[in-house]
């Protein structure tokens, strides 16, 4: 095995610094007492308190959370059903097309996805707002949820289901008492992943939202165009913390699921 030399260590440090130094700087300046972003005025949590009095930001944050909760749930349900179809029925008419349509949002540029959904809503004379953002987020998160659940089902021991069927359980009872308890960590991980994707989406929400349905990333983007303030840094830090918790939780569940599937 080759040694992990100084060059590799320096490359690793440089890579991590490139990725995370901007985020560390943002988090650090969210505790800046000064109103000027680039001038350090001492440690303070004043801007986190100021967020509680910023009603537009609070409204946007609450809307973002509601959209993420509903869209993640929809994406997880549909993604689980799609994963079951793809793993249980290996041969059926249109399987390749179905698989491609489910996975397409993973590789499709967000601008194309947002624009196509916008055209769909306009053609269908659908008023854009809360529900159109939910539909859009569920659409592009569905493929991610399907991949996570499909990976778990691929290593699933089918003999457990067959044993339940031999004992007289109906297909629904088999799924509810055998399949679902064994794959729930993957389903939970898929939900957290979909929740995270919805939480920090800006592009697709910009195309599919309407009056009175401004999400937090959109509100922050509008505010940043007028200048970055420590208050915005504080709001971004809270979003980073929420996304980090969701990603870590999903990773732990996927790791536990992988260990259980051995």
Give an overview in words.
It is built from eleven helices and no strands. The protein has 262 residues and is mainly α. Helix 3 runs parallel beside helix 6, helix 3 runs antiparallel to helix 8 and helix 7 packs antiparallel against helix 8. It is globular, with a radius of gyration of 22 Å.
Q: Specify Rg, calculated over alpha carbons.
A: 22 Å
Morphology: globular
Q: Could you tell me how far the N terminus lies from the C terminus, measured between alpha carbons in angstroms? A: 27 Å
Order of helices and strands: HHHHHHHHHHH
The DSSP helix count reads 11
Q: Unreliable runs, pLDDT <50, ≥5 residues?
A: none
Strand content is under 5%
Task: Describe the main β-sheet briefly.
Answer: none
Give the helix proportion (percent range): over 70%
Rounded average pLDDT: 85
Number of strands: 0
Q: Structural class of the helix and strand makeup?
A: mainly alpha
